[in-house]
Amino acid sequence: MTAVDAVALLLAVAGTVAGSLRWLRVAQREHYLAGETSRFAWRWWRSAADNAGLALLGLAGAAVAVAVPPVAVLPAAVAGAAPLRLPLRGRTGRLAWTRRLSTLAVVTLLLEVVAIGAGWIGGGNRGALIAAGFTALAVPMVVDVALVLTRPAEDVVARKFVRDARGRLERVRPRVVAVTGSYGKTTTKGYIAHLVSPFLTTLPSPKSFNNRAGLARTVNEHLGPATEVFVAEMGTYGPGEIAAMCSWVRPEISVITAIGPAHLERFKSLDRTLAAKAEICETASVVVLNVDDARLLGLVPTLRGAGKKVVEASGSNEVADVSVLASEEGLELRVGGHRVGAASVPQSDLPTALTNVACAAAVAIELGVPPEDVLARLVSLPVPANRLQRYVADGGYVVFDDTFNSNPTGALIGLSRLKSEPTVSTGGRRVVVTPGMVELGPIQHEENAALGESAARVADHVLVIARTNRAALLEGAAAAEDPGRVMTVDRLDQALDWVRANLGPGDAVLYENDLPDHFP
Predict the structure, then answer these.
(1) Nearest in space to 31 (alpha carbons), one of 162, 158, 122
(2) Crossing angle (nearest 10°) for helices 3-29 and 99-137
(3) 443 DSSP assignment
(4) HEC string for 135-167
(5) In the listed set 154, 189, 219, which residue is the last one of a domain according to the structure?
């Protein structure tokens, strides 16, 4: 091997390793789902002209390396340094060297070594260089192959933790409440814990620990012998996941908060979404449904026909089994159509989704909490973090923080709150900062265009973050009559700098969604 070949091979390997770190972080952020790394790579390479140009340069370099092997340094350099704006370590979600990631990294490295080694066996130094160039560009696909190869071993590890969690649940025997929905499940889980915990020792699954691993960890680490109620949030990316969790969590009471286009990119249709969420009802004897949702209302006859007790919860129907309504007094609680009373809650502090409160109240009543005590707890409902929280910034302007997640319904509520904010002075400015909504599948462009149009009508300034939905948001904003000024930035911190520099007392800003930085 010549000195030039040796240096070229070393640089090619270095580029491959750097690219591997970048795409391993994406795999971790996307919950180790095989196929997602390559899908995100495709998004990134076509996200902007500079990245598309670098991708073409890398492919051209790999092709030329077939004739001139040292040129393999070029595709490796592209793979190590790009896509541009996809940071190696990450700002919003750093690479965490967990056991699972370490295993995935080792298998990924072994696959890369095998690929380069196969090139060397087939063509010596020249073959190794050519293989290194192509392997560098193919790292996202290599990571996905590694995910497929490690999945059986990860399932074995997970089954052990699930067995331990099942055993603990059988020993402690808490009453189990399971909550799912396209959106609102985390908020509803928090409301249930708030309403029930003064009367029964309650353990809600923390944060968004809503998959098999998260629930098993919650039970194994936090379920104590005195726990009387376990509230388990359950999320899913496809059919069968919730049914598998219910097979060992075995909820007594199940709740479905809403069916909507969240994760429609994965589910493909709302009917498939409904079927996947409805798996939570299989082992439950009591099912609480948000019947303001037409699809969930349609489940009622089927579930009752299967012998389930169905509790209809509503934020608008006075004669539902349990309803929580907005009134001049605050929050009015009704049970079986009869008025229990009203909790004094200022109009500005009313929850954004009354159906979530109604579902939580229904669960509390099913668990034996008297309706009068539920009513008394409604005055102090917790404000879920980053879910349309309202506060006044140091600069004196009002902030609506709705960055936890975003969906078409929630975004409209956020815009309505911004529009009706009473403290915005005459001449005061309303600002919307958003990267748009993701995982909406075939309706993503349409829904983001609608969001852009609505935002431009409400706000004096709209700041569009990143590139994932930039085209759709700008298209929608341009369609608005008398739109506010629209600006684009690549990162949230740039938008924050603009807001801090330009807003003051009498102004208000809505932060609608926040995408992790592994999105383009």
Answers:
(1) 158
(2) 130
(3) G
(4) HHHCHHHHHHHHHHHHHHHHHHHHHHHHHHHHH
(5) 154
For residue 494, give its domain range: 389-512
d(CA 510, CA 513): 9
Whether residue 180 is contained in a domain is answered as: yes
For residue 478, the model assigns a pLDDT of 93
- Residue 478 CA: distances (Å) to CA of 297, 328, 470, 485: 38, 38, 12, 10
Please indicate, yes or no, if residue 168 is contained in any of the structural domains: no
The torsion angles phi and psi of 262, rounded to 5 degrees, stand at -55, 130
At how many degrees (to 10) do helices 139-172 and 3-29 cross?
Answer: 40
Q: What single letter denotes the amino acid at residue 201?
A: T
* Cα distance between the two ends of the chain: 40
Is the model's pLDDT at 1 over the cut of 70? no
Q: What are the tens digits of pLDDT across the range 71-117?
A: 999 999 999 999 999 988 787 778 889 999 999 999 999 999 999 99
CB 269 within 8 A of CB 440: no
Note whether 206 and 336 are same-domain residues. Answer: yes
C-alpha span between 273 and 235 (Å, rounded)? 11
Q: Which helix (H) or strand (E) holds 23?
A: helix 3-29
pLDDT for 406-451, tens place per residue? 889 889 999 999 999 999 998 899 999 999 999 898 999 999 999 9
In a domain, 159, yes or no: no
Q: 133: number of CA atoms within 13 Å, CB side?
A: 27
- Give residue-wise pLDDT tens across range 239-292: 999 999 999 999 999 999 999 887 767 777 888 999 999 999 999 999 999 999
Question: How many domains does one find in the chain?
Answer: 3
Examine the domain organization and report whether 439 and 301 are in the same domain.
Answer: no
C-alpha span between 69 and 80 (Å, rounded): 18
Residues in the chain: 520
292 and 437 assigned to the same domain: no
